[in-house]
Amino acid sequence: HTLIILIMITILVSYMMLSLFFNKYINRFLLEQQMIEMIWTILPAITLIFIALPSLRLFYLLDELNNPLITLKSIGHQWYWSYEYSDFSNIEFDSYMIQSPEQMNNFRLLDVDNRVTIPMNNQIRILVTATDVIHSWTIPSLGVKIDANPGRLNQTNFYINRPGIFYGQCPEICGANHSFMPIVIESISIKNFIKWINNYSSLDDWK
């Protein structure tokens, strides 16, 4: 759409420039012309509107997600994350960085005690907010970075097409321990995810 408009503008301007170069029209008394100045001011403004409106529509459509399988809510605290699975009752937990040397694996300052478990090959919607200061829910390997602002609910989505463990951190300077609130996502098959949901619900009911 934009390319067609640009081609039309380029052809028109090129034609007018060539005409001015090769004609021999001279008018000694032409000092100003309010009408033509008004026309060549209004026409570019109208052209910009025709370019901007479809772009704005696409911009808002990109934020919409059709039929996500799971909605995950992430809440940033100083200095840990809380997660809620909105589609399932009583599934919510806090995720702290592992500090004990006995539990720590090779990824120092990156692993957590409670990982986020999601099914692969499905659209996942995540809602992000914070309770105290500005945080950022960021996983570079998934191309996801979304700010967590107090009093505001931000939304994004992602799609993981393979099983694995994905690590991230909060890149915002949200306080003294801002580098100690890692994010870990574990992607598993839908069959194992259903088992995990059932086991978690059973454990919660037992508590």
TrEMBL record:
Keywords attached to this Swiss-Prot or TrEMBL record, sorted alphabetically, are: Copper, Electron transport, Magnesium, Membrane, Metal-binding, Mitochondrion, Mitochondrion inner membrane, Respiratory chain, Translocase, Transmembrane, Transmembrane helix, Transport
What catalytic activity is recorded?
4 Fe(II)-[cytochrome c] + O2 + 8 H(+)(in) = 4 Fe(III)-[cytochrome c] + 2 H2O + 4 H(+)(out)
**Domain Cytochrome oxidase subunit II transmembrane region profile residues, every copy:** 1-66
A Gene Ontology molecular function term of the record: cytochrome-c oxidase activity
Cofactor requirements of the protein: Cu cation
Tell me the function of this protein: Component of the cytochrome c oxidase, the last enzyme in the mitochondrial electron transport chain which drives oxidative phosphorylation. The respiratory chain contains 3 multisubunit complexes succinate dehydrogenase (complex II, CII), ubiquinol-cytochrome c oxidoreductase (cytochrome b-c1 complex, complex III, CIII) and cytochrome c oxidase (complex IV, CIV), that cooperate to transfer electrons derived from NADH and succinate to molecular oxygen, creating an electrochemical gradient over the inner membrane that drives transmembrane transport and the ATP synthase.
Which named protein is this? Cytochrome c oxidase subunit 2
Q: What is this protein's gene name?
A: COII
